[in-house]
Design goal:
heterodimer; A: about 325 residues; two-stranded antiparallel sheet; B: about 325 residues; alpha/beta; Rossmann fold; 5-stranded mixed sheet; binds thiamine diphosphate; binds magnesium ion
Chain lengths: ~325, ~325
């Protein structure tokens, strides 16, 4: 439910979410470095305010579609932390029973329709969820997270056009972190103001500072309320910066250290801490206590994942069909 | 001979083609930075942004524009880092590239190469681990190449770029970083000529891409542990298909196991097995067996991934079955 930034407890809750994503992912970086996590890990560090601000306006029966960089969206939408961690380890206790991994975490019971390894795949799926809500005459909302690289994919345009013409309850949130893998947005995208892409489809648009959780929450609230009230979709462009590489281990030859360190002065977590302190809502000691508590939560998730078993080899072809088909 | 990686070998082939023919251009995501696997390292520096074109994340555009460029005077090499991304451009491959020449009565050829990395690599998950050669080779009008070692990677890519028809060039991720001896000079390896990667008299292992490497490992184990002499036939290209070499080998050994990393069910191995049966039915002393992946999307969890996808030990098991029925 919407954050009341005048209220101490409500603000602290938003802070805890930011911290949880940050500490979860710093822990993943560490575990990945130690060889404990298979596959690839894409971290959301530096972008946490977007997921937290947007999802603070969502109900548990609302939907989100996510990307390859999806842990933050899942956490902000309320995924079970132990199940998330165990999934990243490939354990049978994982939220997808170890079948998915980091790039494919999902919890349909919480409206998390999946992190996705195919760029911008979530956009058309969000359109379908929106159609479903409209057809079922519900007042749910879909938030579709995607990247500034993804915005050039045809599916984005097909989805925005359709959602706009049908006034579907979908909010497109473009996380503009300046890069698609190793390529600067400027090299491949025709407009620097990405919100123009929404305007082209007759949609409402909004641009905001994606590192400021207060601004994200307030601006996205209007978009989400509009969607819920039958006023159709909005394209929200959230400017931000990816602190880490495209994936953990990316040598990052394509950008300067100077650029990265400059961006770190606008760390969404630090900005929000400053806000909380300057508003007299929370003091330093309290913030430190929160860090200890969240670290404990994440540590517990790691030990849960480490204690868990891998799936049984004979179950490798389970879940392909609803009812098992033999001989194929 | 010096030893270089599969990826480096393809850079050499591309650069040689670009030096020789200025209509050769390279397009794809992140290629200015060398590509996900270093397959384009140094090309932007040598040939500039008009010939090494960084594309947006728009697979339909990347492959569709290659068709458009190919029928108007260029020889595009369009790259997708993972073969799964071709699925966002199957119309451009199947309905456009493959059909233009036939449908328009032979007026044009479509001289383009689609490069894509396939196969399993350390828990890349269901959307980054698969092998789709069966889809492509099923469609008339597409040539399909799947090299197994750096030297072939270089020579086959050179021929693929020369070729006047669309070629799907599949580079397996597990072997992309592996090194092997590669001649320094510029050379071509013809499409449609299988290689006998190892000679043997007891059983033929018909294979391509990464499974050639696993088949060679298996052949060594079979010799050492079971005194079985396996012959390994590396197809190198699936279309055109060198069935003559396959039949020559199987006529000699009278036993065949067809091996690929892709799913067994509906896989390319079925085509090979069927052709062997059609030509050599009376001479076989055991049914032709297939080794491939079990029918499931490729799981993330390491033990499941390993269980789904075959390696050398599965090849050994299959060979033993053909010998001791
Ligand atoms: C259809 C498709 N094409 C290409 C890729 C490879 N790829 C993975 S992430 C990525 C960059 C995505 O950039 P953006 O949308 O800005 O998201 P970010 O990584 O910055 O969060 C690319 C090209 C993919 N996963 N899917
Ligand atoms: Mg981006």
């Amino acid at each position: 439910m919407a954050v009341d930034f005048k209220d101490r407890e409500s603000s602290l809750e938003a802070y805890r979410q930011l911290l949880l994503i940050r500490i979860f992912e710093e822990t993943l970086e560490d575990l990945f470095g130690k060889g404990k996590i298979p596959g690839f890990v894409h971290t959301y560090i530096g972008q946490e305010a977007i997921a937290v601000g947007v999802c603070s306006n969502l109900r548990s029966d609302d939907y989100v579609t996510s990307t390859h960089r999806g842990h933050g969206h899942a956490i902000a939408k309320g995924i079970d932390l132990n199940g998330l961690m165990a999934e990243v380890f490939g354990k049978v206790t994982g939220i997808c029973k170890g079948r998915g991994g980091s790039m494919h975490v999902a919890d349909f019971s919480k409206g998390i329709l999946g992190a996705n390894g195919i760029v911008a795949a979530g956009t058309v799926i969000a359109a379908g969820a929106g159609l479903s809500i409209q057809s079922r005459e519900q007042d749910q909302v879909v938030v579709c997270f995607f990247g500034d690289g993804g915005i050039n994919k045809g599916t984005v345009h097909e989805a925005m056009n359709f959602c706009s013409v049908k006034r579907l309850p979908v909010v497109f949130v473009c996380e503009n972190n300046q890069y698609a893998q190793f390529t600067s947005r400027k090299l491949t995208t025709s407009v620097s103001d990405l919100s123009k892409r929404g305007a082209a489809y007759g949609m409402s648009t909004a641009s905001l500072d994606g590192n400021n959780v207060v601004e994200v929450a307030e601006v996205s609230k209007k978009a989400i309320d509009d969607a819920r009230n039958g006023l159709g979709p909005t394209l929200v462009v959230a400017d931000t910066y990816r602190f880490g590489g495209h994936y953990v281990g990316d040598p990052q030859a394509y950008r300067s250290e100077d650029e990265v360190s400059k961006s770190r002065t606008r760390d969404p977590l630090l900005l929000f801490e400053k806000h909380l302190e300057s508003q007299g809502l929370v003091d330093r000691d309290q913030l430190e206590l929160e860090k200890v508590a969240i670290t404990e939560l994440v540590d517990e998730a790691v030990s849960f994942a480490e204690r868990s078993d891998y799936p049984e080899v004979h179950s490798a072809t389970d879940y392909v069909f609803t009812d098992r088909i033999e001989g194929s | 001979m010096r030893s270089i990686s599969f990826g480096q070998a393809t850079v050499e082939a591309t650069a040689a083609a670009m030096r020789e023919d200025e209509t050769v251009v390279v397009t794809g995501e992140d290629i200015g930075w060398g590509g996900n696997f270093g397959q384009f390292k140094g090309l932007l520096e040598e040939f500039g942004p008009k010939r090494v074109v960084d594309m947006p994340i728009s697979e339909a555009l990347i492959l569709g524009s290659a068709v458009g460029a190919a029928v108007t005077g260029l020889r595009p090499v369009a790259s997708l880092s993972f073969v799964e991304f071709t699925m966002g451009a199957m119309d451009e491959i199947i309905n456009q590239a493959a059909k233009f020449r036939y449908m328009f009565g032979g007026q044009v050829s479509v001289p383009m190469v689609v490069r894509a990395s396939d196969g399993v690599l350390r828990s890349s998950g269901a959307q980054h681990s698969e092998s789709f050669e069966a889809f492509f080779s099923h469609m008339p009008g597409l040539k399909v190449v799947a090299p197994s070692n750096p030297a072939d990677a270089k020579g086959l890519l050179r021929s693929a770029i020369d070729d006047d028809d669309p070629v799907i060039y599949l580079e397996n991720k597990k072997i992309t970083f592996r090194r092997g001896p590669v001649p320094e000079e510029d050379y071509r390896t013809a499409l449609g000529e299988a290689a006998i990667a190892r000679e043997g008299s007891d059983v033929s292992l018909i294979t391509y891409s990464v499974m050639t490497q696993h088949a060679l490992e298996a052949a060594q184990v079979l010799l050492e542990d079971h005194s079985i002499e396996a012959e390994v036939v590396d197809l190198r290209s699936l279309v055109p298909l060198d069935m003559e070499s396959v039949l020559r080998s199987v006529a000699k050994t009278r036993r065949a196991v067809v091996c690929h990393e892709a799913w067994t069910f509906g896989g390319f191995g079925g085509e090979i097995a069927s052709q062997i049966n059609e030509h050599l039915f009376g001479e076989l002393v055991a049914p032709v067996l297939r080794v491939g992946a079990q029918s499931a999307p490729i799981a993330f969890s390491p033990p499941l991934e390993r269980a789904l996808v075959p390696e050398a030990s599965e090849v050994v098991q299959a060979v033993l079955r053909t010998l001791k029925p």
